[in-house]
What does this fold into?
Amino acid sequence: MPGNTDHREVLTFLEGEGVSVHGRATVHAGVAVYGIGGANPTPFGTPFELAEEEIAAHLERAVGATGGVPERILVSHAPPFESGVDRLWSGRPVGSHAVRAHVEAIRPALVLCGHIHEGRGLGRVGEVPVANPGPLVGGGYVKIRFENGHPVASVERVALRGGERVIGEVRQAAHKLRRLPRMRAKR
It folds into this structure.
């Protein structure tokens, strides 16, 4: 899933590898995973920003691709507006209104998001749980387990051994991932 600071070539690369859920869905073991990359507009003009109308259209196409599977997990780089995990340090919510409207209408079993690094934690849109692990470089990830066939998420942190050495390795890996589409194109 490309983020707002990723160039669109990352999306092209992920699609070419058959692992993108941006505007798409995949179904495995009775669970549909679908999503949207990029983010709603920011003050920074990052490479992968979408208007709220574009986000809504991609989400509509993606949920349509779930084939009516009732157990759905939405993966959205941008968090839903006013979900509790979309707040800046100032407390101001900056999530996507289109993602929130989609969650209210479709009510997926779980929403996984990122984008707002300081929004790390668990939130909700109505009864729908929303999980934001924060940045990977800080060790954040989401663990999903299934209880009675339904996904339950917890926000976790990798216990970093070696402190800065491990963080440096994660940063280096992230840098390589960002460069993959360009590296692949040179072959």
Observations:
- Strands lie at 25-28, 31-36, 72-76, 110-113, 121-125, 128-132, 140-147, 150-157.
